[in-house]
Design brief:
Blueprint lengths: L4 H12 L5 H13 L5 H7 L5 H15 L9 H12 L5 H16 L8 H7 L5 H14 L14 H5 L14 H23 L3 H7 L5 E2 L2 E10 L2 E8 L4 E7 L11 E2 L2 E2 H15 L9 E7 L2 E7 L3 E3 H7 L8 H7 L19 H20 L2 E2 L8 E4 L4 E3 L6 E2 L21 H4 L8 H17 L9 H7 L8 H4 L5 H10 L11 H12 L16 H8 L4
Antiparallel strand pairs: 1-2, 2-3, 3-4, 4-8, 5-6, 7-8, 9-11, 10-13, 11-12
Helix pairs in contact: 1-4, 5-6, 5-8, 15-17, 15-21, 17-20, 20-21
Length: about 550
């Protein structure tokens, strides 16, 4: 179909306002494609989908949408400016999308003039003015604009043959070299954009044929995860031509409280908001970043970077899958082939100790960063941690996270929330107000326990049995599961998982520092109370990396 951009916008506004259905719009666009001389508005009226006054109202809304730009692209400059900020690392996608949405809301309300994107970012303290000015200077080239008036540069052959270029808007003389460069860059980028438009993965094309998979600017490809806080899909983002992980809040769930809203259960909504807010506040290389959020057809969602690889739970249970990781990482960990399950029910090979310690140190530093931001995860476990194809660990799923500055909207006293095998005793008692940064350290220790031994704490017991045992009994000691385990490793796990909060590490960074000391063969800084001194010969072996 080759409908004019203005007609497409009118149809989109009508669809968004609920005045017509998607099928009615599609039907009218087909008619217009056969007879391009007819406007979409006249077709909608002639087929009885809208009245004349409805079309007049839509045209007025469309006129407002186009007021801020004469070229028919109301947010092109803002969108490109936002993309430039993200590419240069000056702002996150979440921050840019939040401010773009605010611009759209102000425009729909008829508030003029709509503040520039840079101004909103500054007001929200996402950027300083110096960063905005730097980005605007870069944007001038990206938009191929006249340095004097900002009009888009076009380079007709006859003008360039004379070695001159005059801006048709302000009539300023522009150096021919600059005009040629701008035209060449524009041509290259336009060509790349066209290739992106047609070079869609087959799975995206197939999924896009099903109307149920169309979700706003996303195409839902397949479900890749499901839990109490939502359903996660592998999805295609149309405007950025990329894969993302999209988490959708369902209207029905096992954790529902019974208080319904048009968007789902009220308690589920509180937890989803808390999760989104927590993820948006974090910017760390080991915490999966949030890219976008919103509400489509009364379904709240957010998107995150799609990470290919395997969760720590998958690795412990099934071994390292050679298809999930790059050869360099496989070579480093000495895993050239995947261990066959053989139907024995045994878990797969664990990661080498050296790799495990490095992974845990990265995770501990990421958790410490979140704690410094006033965010407690409260559900750290192997299933919520993924190693990407390079073996880089990422923390996922902040569904139970507490954001200190906004309180705990999902808190219900007496209700146990989390995964029993990895939660500390205070969490098992159901008092989430007592679950804090020290509680996350216990969970880090439990993850370390499982990566080392290949089995989770309290293995063989039901979740209810674990909840009963947690306040009074610790898990089976690592030494009894792993003959020859280095004493310092056992001490780090024991201290992190101590049932008395006061005897755990004081911070996740303290745990990370002890892991670093072990890597370097140095004595641990914080020994558990009553720990036995190490024999001299074992210290020597540790120094030389033989133990």
């Amino acid at each position: 179909m080759t409908s004019p951009k203005r007609d497409l916008l009118l149809g989109k506004i009508a669809l968004r306002a609920g005045m017509i259905t998607r099928e009615q719009l599609y039907d009218c666009l087909i008619v217009q494609d056969r007879n391009p001389s007819r406007t979409l508005g006249s077709i909608l009226v002639s087929r009885g989908h809208l009245k004349k006054q409805d079309v007049d109202r839509l045209l007025e809304m469309q006129k407002k949408a186009f007021e801020e730009s004469a070229d028919g692209t109301p947010s092109r400059r803002h969108a490109l400016f936002g993309r430039l900020l993200v590419e240069k690392g000056l702002a996150t996608e979440y921050q840019v999308n939040e401010c773009l949405r605010l611009q759209g809301s102000l425009n729909e309300l008829g508030i003029k003039p709509v503040p520039p994107l840079g101004e909103i970012l500054v007001q929200r303290e996402y950027l300083n003015r110096e960063a905005v000015e730097t980005a605007l200077d870069l944007q001038s080239l990206h938009l191929y604009a006249c340095p004097e008036c900002g009009h888009q540069i076009d380079t007709p052959g006859e003008e360039m043959s004379r070695g001159t270029y005059t801006c048709p808007e302000c009539h300023a003389d522009i150096p021919a070299l600059f005009a040629k460069m701008a035209a060449a860059v524009k041509e290259a980028l336009d060509g790349a954009s066209k290739e992106l438009d047609i070079d869609l993965p087959d799975e995206v094309r197939l999924a896009g044929l099903e109307p149920k998979n169309q979700f706003g600017k996303y195409i839902l490809i397949k479900e890749i995860g499901r839990g109490g806080s939502g359903i996660v899909y592998r999805a295609w983002q149309k405007d950025f031509n990329r894969m993302v992980a999209l988490k959708l809040l369902p209207h029905e769930s096992d954790t529902a409280s019974g208080v319904k809203t048009p968007f789902g259960d009220v308690e589920d909504l509180k937890r989803f908001y808390s999760e989104t807010r927590a993820a948006a506040d974090l910017d760390h290389p080991n915490i999966a970043p949030i890219l976008d959020f919103g509400n489509i057809n009364n379904h709240f969602f957010y998107t995150m970077k799609l990470l290919d690889g395997a969760t720590l739970d998958d690795i412990v249970r099934e071994g390292v899958d050679t298809d999930s990781f790059d050869k360099q990482f496989l070579s480093e960990v000495g895993k050239q082939t995947r261990r066959s399950g053989g139907g024995t029910g045994r878990r797969g090979d664990t990661l080498p100790l050296r790799t495990t310690v490095q992974v845990m140190r990265d995770l501990a530093l990421a958790v410490d960063y979140a704690h410094q931001k006033g965010i407690y995860h409260r559900d750290l476990k192997p299933g919520n941690i993924i190693l990407d194809r390079n073996g880089h660990p990422w923390i996922l799923d902040l569904g139970l996270a507490k954001v200190k500055r906004i309180g705990d909207p999902a808190y219900v006293k007496g209700v146990v929330m989390g995964t029993p095998y990895y939660m500390p005793p205070e969490q098992a008692l159901g008092d989430m107000e007592k679950v804090d940064h020290i509680s996350d350290i216990y969970s880090l220790g439990a993850v370390f326990y499982e990566l080392i031994s290949g089995t989770c704490p309290y293995a063989g017991q039901s979740p209810d049995e674990v909840l009963t045992a947690l306040p009074n009994t610790g898990p089976q000691p690592l030494e009894s599961l792993m003959a020859g385990l280095h004493e310092d490793v056992a001490r780090i796990v024991d201290k992190a998982m101590h049932r008395d909060k006061r005897r755990r590490y004081s911070s996740a960074r303290s745990m990370a520092n002890d892991l670093l000391r072990f890597q370097e063969g140095r004595p641990l800084a914080e020994e558990p109370a009553g720990a036995r001194p190490r024999p001299f010969w074992r210290k020597v072996r540790a120094w030389f990396g033989d133990d």
